[in-house]
Amino acid sequence: MKLEKFKEKNNKKIGIILFTITCIMLISGVIFYRTFAIFETNDNLDLINGSVEDKGDIEFAFYIDGTISKKAPEKGSNYSLDTSSSYCKDVLNNTRISNVNWNEEKWGIELNNVSTTKTKCYLYFKEIYKEGIFNGAIPDF
């Protein structure tokens, strides 16, 4: 049996190992913290298959010939607002609050008597018959 000399602990070697372990723990801690700091939430809503960042106080739902649409028909198209079907309602109280008018010259909506927040307007557009020769009249043959 061969006896070896008792070796003293190498302080330099232990210091390097502790420094390396500390650096690894600090780097992993920073990476762990950054993964949570990068995460954020947004209040994005998908309204009529389109993204809306801020809903605001008034929302519009456009219906063209009974089909929901992302936007109103283009100016000069053969559509006009059906004022008998279109209306606005208070979303919080679920009550009808206003009738809707359409400005043909500005091609935009005119709302009257809207005094509440969270209002949703349902705008129904229907096709109108326009024809250059007879102006919509049925000819007599």
SSE layout:
Blueprint lengths: L10 H28 L6 E3 L2 E3 L5 E7 L2 E3 L9 E3 L5 E4 L4 E9 L4 E4 L7 E9 L14
Parallel strand pairs: 3-9
Antiparallel strand pairs: 1-2, 3-4, 5-9, 6-7, 6-9, 7-8
Describe this structure in words.
The chain is α+β, with helices and mostly antiparallel strands and 141 residues long. The protein has 2 domains: 12-41; 45-127, no CATH class. The chain has 1 helix and 9 strands; from the N terminus they run αβββββββββ. It has one helix at 11-38; strands spanning 45-47, 50-52, 58-64, 67-69, 79-81, 87-90, 95-103, 108-111, 119-127. Strands 3, 4, 5, 6, 7, 8 and 9 form a 7-stranded mixed beta sheet that branches. Strands 1-2 form a two-stranded antiparallel sheet. The longest helix has 28 residues, at 11-38. The protein starts with 10 loop residues before the first helix and ends in a 14-residue tail after the last strand. The mean pLDDT is 77.
Write a concise keyword list for the protein shown above.
two-stranded antiparallel sheet, alpha+beta
Overall geometry: rod-shaped
Helix-and-strand structural type: alpha+beta
SSE run = HEEEEEEEEE
Major β-sheet annotation = 7 strands, mixed
| Beta-strand segment tally | 9
Q: What fraction strand?
A: 25-35%
Distance between the termini: 130 Å
Tally of DSSP helical segments: 1
Could you tell me the radius of gyration in angstroms? 35 Å
Q: Total domains, how many?
A: 2
Q: Could you tell me the mean pLDDT?
A: 77
Instruction: Give the helix proportion (percent range).
Output: 10-25%
**Unreliable runs, pLDDT <50, ≥5 residues?**
none
